[in-house]
């Protein structure tokens, strides 16, 4: 029988997280305090986060030990398995070798508990009794609920009301793990009350849910706030995924030529690729390709306010006034535009700007087509986000079929899609549409964009 | 009419599920989501819709670049501290 799974013994689970900040060719730019203009310091963040997490946020130490208490909890589902997708390879008739590291076997069904458990632990250690957070569809909220249950920390989740009403199963998961889940806007914060007064039927928004969770935390001395993506310490905690994968790929006597992963807040993919990118930075593996995948239709990434974002990053906002609405601006579908999106993890933005990672955008019907193929060959019902990775992995494998190259492709698979079956249903019943701007509009928009040094268009 | 597209549905990558257009046109403190153009442009004349229903000041407010996460958190902390 051919080997399809690579298991690590629990004793071989990594004992340290890898901190990319030690190896960045250029350090991350400092975050400035909006009021003083000076770099944000630990005291500025102390109302929300425990000091150990704040120090991890800015640490340049290469290896940060995973406390034994966290490893104990990790060991309830880790190490996760590295799979060889041989059935997919056969279906594609490709010489490529496809591996996927599957995080869907955590109790919460995704990679999110890797940081949820750590954050609950550090808060508990600092004497914090209660944590607040926000959640959209509930994936982060449920992971943190589980993390807090392990360390007996109270949790209150502000869930965007539209999801709260539409996704009762996620709420029930959170409540089962002991969290209190309230729809946002709620009547429990000033931010929520103000909104309800203006608009009693408000469906909520992520921004408002964050405001409520932060307000709740700042108002109480026994409470902190927790975030499941974007921040450096979150990405740090996820590196256990990539560190495990390195050991497992060694067991498979393989090294990836291409690593693919989707990017939202960046925590899943960063957790996988950061432990590999150090080989590229050191020059040991200069040809390693790290491909960030984003949806062609996703406004936060490929279109939307791309130009505005870029303006902000470059400090050239006045220039971009030229492209405000009503002045002929058509958001261009420039791949990887969202990598400059400020909702994206600064580390990923930075690596992109340094040319160490690349990006590609894919259409959503193709994404679900790939998800279906993966389900029918490998058996895994993949979440909509990691379906993007599967799509790009299939594309790369098919390129290998044409070229005859036997490349090794590694998929960062963040979890299952058991709570996202409505999206599969929409695909299977033909309700998903692909969005694409006509070529002439794209060309016109590109011609109208300001020429900014260093911007590869 | 402001409500003309309210029942149109789309998968919101931020929220992680299906939402209607009413949500998209109002989720940003009762103004449209800043990503509304990219999401809806292929399905409707979203620019005409926005120009027809929102002032230039509103639109500028919508498309203010988002701040880096840490910076926005610090800003929120300061705001809450002041109101304590």
Explain this structure:
The complex is a heterodimer of chains A (457) and B (84). Chain A is α/β, with parallel strands linked by helices and 457 residues long. Chain A is 44% helix and 13% strand. Chain A is built from 19 helices and 13 strands. In chain A, the strands form three sheets. A seven-stranded mixed sheet of chain A has the order 1-4-5-13-10-11-12, with helices on both faces. Chain A has a four-stranded parallel sheet with strand order 8-7-6-9, sandwiched between helices. A two-stranded antiparallel ribbon of chain A has the order 2-3. In chain A, strand 6, helix 6 (139-151) and strand 7 (154-160) form a beta-alpha-beta unit. In chain A, helix 3 (68-74) packs antiparallel against helix 5 and helix 11 (232-251) crosses helix 12. Chain A is globular. The radius of gyration of chain B is 15 Å and the shape is globular. Chain B has 84 residues and is mostly helical. Helices cover 46% and strands 10% of the residues of chain B. Chain B has one domain. Chain B has a two-stranded antiparallel sheet with strand order 1-2. Chain B has helices at 21-24, 36-40, 46-53, 56-62, 69-83, and strands at 9-12, 17-20. Chain B is built from five helices and two strands; from the N terminus they run ββααααα. The interface between A and B is large, with 76 and 50 residues.
